[in-house]
């Protein structure tokens, strides 16, 4: 009887450790993806004196790659809803950015810059990406893990 109890306890402890490791490993991967996205986005626009089509296209491409990379991850069940929300909103932002570039294809540089600055709908989606990242970070804390997704 004691042997069975010890085996059950060992299995529970082992399961808890593997769950924590799975969450930690998952969060490390997500953090790497979002940090790369942020750094690529900053690099794309940091050297520009004004907003350019090439800079915005590079930011959208960084987000597209991040969204695709996140879709390949299989999150632990404890954080799957937050993962799905983050992937969904990043994909939505990428699609909206691509549509914006297509809709503004005929604008000259000054008109394009004004259009970017007036793109309130894109700003709203960007804000939702921040909310989704915050939700993943808060859920990580609930699971006794910490992560800074840098988004």
Descriptive account of the structure:
- It is a single chain.
- The chain is mostly helical and 151 residues long.
- It has one domain (2-142).
- It is built from five helices and no strands.
- It has helices at 2-46, 53-72, 80-103, 109-117, 120-142.
- Helix 1 packs antiparallel against helix 2 (53-72), helix 2 (53-72) runs antiparallel to helix 3 and helix 3 (80-103) runs antiparallel to helix 5.
- The longest helix is centred in the N-terminal third of the chain and has 45 residues, at 2-46.
Give a quick set of tags describing it.
151 residues; mainly alpha; disordered N terminus; 80% helix
What's the total helix number?
5
Number of strands: 0
Class of secondary structure makeup: mainly alpha
- Helix residue percentage: over 70%
Radius of gyration: 20 Å
Report the order of strands and helices.
HHHHH
From the spread of the alpha carbons, the general shape counts as elongated
Mean pLDDT: 85
Distance between the termini: 52 Å
Domain count: the total is 1
Major sheet: none
Instruction: Indicate the proportion of strand residues.
Output: under 5%
Low-confidence stretches: 1-19
Question: What's the quick description here?
Answer:
With 151 residues, the protein is mainly α.
Topology record:
Blueprint: H1 2-46, H2 53-72, H3 80-103, H4 109-117, H5 120-142
